[in-house]
Structures are given as structure tokens and as C-alpha cells.
Design brief:
By secondary structure, the protein is of the alpha+beta class. It folds into 2 domains: 54 residues, no CATH class; 221 residues, 2-Layer Sandwich (Alpha-Beta Plaits). The protein is 32% helix and 31% strand. Strands 6, 7, 8, 9, 10, 11, 12 and 13 form an 8-stranded mixed β-sheet that branches. A hairpin with a 2-residue loop joins strand 3 and strand 4. Helix 2 runs parallel beside helix 5 and helix 4 runs antiparallel to helix 5. It is globular and about 70 Å long.
């Protein structure tokens, strides 16, 4: 399978014909990501983050006749505005006991179908820190906090075109499946960062006002190949869909290495995200990485 590469450009519309719908767009390699140079091979660009040299023809190889262009954006247009709106809704819910859903429409939950050939997914693992102690201290209060967190975080998953793969008792694993891997990877990081912002600025303040347990979460994410299989036990009639893949396993292990309220991502996701995210990503020292991942690089998102 050909390795995926990302190229970041600054786009400028030179002309647009409303009668034909055709536009001429100028693409300039984003100087935040690349240093430009010339040699005998022609014009080249050095990726400041991945430390690789790429010639202009290679950068432009993903464009041309017959290459599909995808539009994929979250239904949440502004995370800050969304968090503010949810804050008032959660305060109202805890005061009068009535749930008011977000005004934005989320992608409906969809279940995976068995696919032995497999394909690339983005996976995100979210877990509540210290949930066992919190539940032991006051199970009824914790369950109320937990229910609100899962519902609000699960809503965000749908807003970012994802779906929940499974709940884990202390959080969930979700995925994004889309043919545009660049949009997918950007959305995956945006989702994780938005979950933490929603918790910090909306969920926890609402819980604190009602003397309910405040929660901290860890978030890990990665991108890569996975196979979806149906597992059956004929004699009992048991049947379920399971997902097998290193990217899923890495996302969970990365999450488990996170400090509270931090998001970390694996290198296979890091190298495919927009430069805007790369500028906010910092490599985790070897001492802070899961030992089970060996030399695999992990990055925290600020």
C-alpha cells in the first residue's frame, strides 16, 4: 500500500466563472511548513516538521484531472461558542432536570460492517482519570457526572463526523471513517481538543455548582489500517463486530500514558495533520511514552 503524504498549501482564487462553475486556484506551499530551495533537480521544499525534502512535482502530484475533492467539516462551527452554549444548557438541566440537546445536528451513530480487506481509520480513546476511586467514594454522584460526560462527549463525536466504537465503563473508543484522510486526521485532533475544552469550560463548572464530582480525562489518538471482523460463537449464538489494528491499540496505549486533561497523538497521525496542528504538537520524551510502543513517537497537543 502506497504511503500517504500530506501537503499544506495557501490557496488563493484567481478567477471564478459562475456560468461554468470553474475556478482557477493558485496554490502556494505553506511557508509555515516548508523552507524553499533550488538544486539540480529543480525547486524543492524541506518539511520543517518531518525533516524531509520534497520536490515541487511531488507536492503537486495529488492534484490533477479526476482527483476527487472532499468537503468534510464539523457541524460545530466554533468550539468556543459551542462550549458556551452547552454551559448554559447543562446549568439549566441540573437546575430543572430537563435535557436540552445542542442546536447543531450531529452525524447519526452508525455501526461498522465486517470488512476482511480492511482500510484506514482514525481512532480516539478517552478515559476518565481515577474513576474507580470516584465511584467508590459516592457511586450515585459519580454516575450522574459520568452520564453527563459520556453524553456530551458522544455528541461531540457525532459533530466531528465520528461514531462510538464502544464504551469502556470509564470512557469510550470512537473512530472516524472518511475517504479524505487529511480531513479525517484534522477532525480527529480537533475532536480530542474540543472534548477537553468542553470538559474544562462547560461540564466541570456545571458539576461543581451542584456539588457533583468534577472529572478529568485522558485522550489518545492515532491513524492507520484496521480490519473489521465478525466474531461468532455458534453454539451459544453470540455474535459481535470487532476491530483489529495497530492504530486502535496505539490510541489506547497513548491515552493511558497521558496526564489528566491532555491529548496525545501517535506519529502516524502527526505526519498527516495540518501545519496548524503541527505547530501545537510537541514530542513526548521517551520516559513519558508507553514502553510497549518502543521507539514509536508520541506528541502532546497544546
Amino acid at each position: 500500500m502506497k504511503e500517504k503524504r500530506r501537503a499544506d498549501f495557501i490557496q488563493r482564487v484567481e478567477s471564478y466563472d459562475p456560468d461554468t462553475g470553474k475556478a482557477i486556484v493558485c496554490l502556494e506551499p505553506d511557508p509555515r511548513r516548508y523552507d524553499k530551495g533550488e538544486d539540480q533537480g529543480g525547486t524543492y521544499y524541506v518539511d520543517k516538521f518531518l525533516k524531509v525534502k520534497v520536490y515541487l512535482d511531488e507536492l503537486l502530484s495529488g492534484f490533477g484531472p479526476g482527483v476527487p475533492m472532499y468537503a468534510m467539516g464539523p457541524s460545530v462551527k466554533s468550539a468556543t461558542e459551542y462550549v458556551e452554549a452547552r454551559s448554559s444548557s447543562l446549568d439549566e438541566e441540573l437546575e430543572v432536570g430537563e435535557y436540552r440537546p445542542p442546536s447543531e445536528s450531529a452525524k447519526p451513530q452508525s455501526d461498522l460492517s465486517a470488512d476482511e480487506e480492511g482500510k484506514d481509520f482514525g481512532f480516539i480513546s478517552l478515559d476518565i482519570c481515577g474513576s474507580t476511586a470516584l465511584r467508590s467514594s459516592d457511586s450515585q454522584a459519580f454516575d450522574r457526572s459520568y452520564e453527563m460526560l459520556i453524553r456530551e462527549m458522544g455528541s461531540l463525536v457525532g459533530h466531528f463526523n465520528g461514531a462510538i466504537l464502544k464504551t469502556t465503563g470509564d470512557g469510550f473508543i470512537a473512530y472516524i471513517d472518511h475517504p479524505s484522510f487529511t480531513n479525517l486526521c484534522d477532525s480527529l485532533v480537533d475532536l480530542g481538543v474540543s472534548c477537553i475544552q468542553l470538559l474544562r469550560e462547560s461540564i466541570n463548572p456545571a458539576l461543581e455548582k451542584r456539588s457533583l464530582p468534577k472529572l478529568d480525562v485522558r485522550v489518545g489518538a492515532d491513524y492507520g489500517f484496521a480490519v473489521v471482523r465478525r466474531v461468532t460463537v455458534p453454539i451459544t449464538g453470540y455474535s459481535s463486530i470487532d476491530v483489529y489494528g495497530d492504530a486502535l491499540n496505539r490510541a489506547v496505549k497513548i491515552e493511558q500514558s497521558c496526564p489528566p486533561n491532555e491529548m496525545r497523538i501517535g506519529f502516524d497521525l502527526y505526519k498527516l495533520v495540518h501545519v496548524g496542528w503541527l505547530e501545537r504538537a510537541f514530542e513526548v520524551p521517551e520516559s513519558g511514552r508507553p514502553t510497549s510502543l518502543g521507539s514509536y513517537k508520541v506528541f502532546r497537543i497544546s
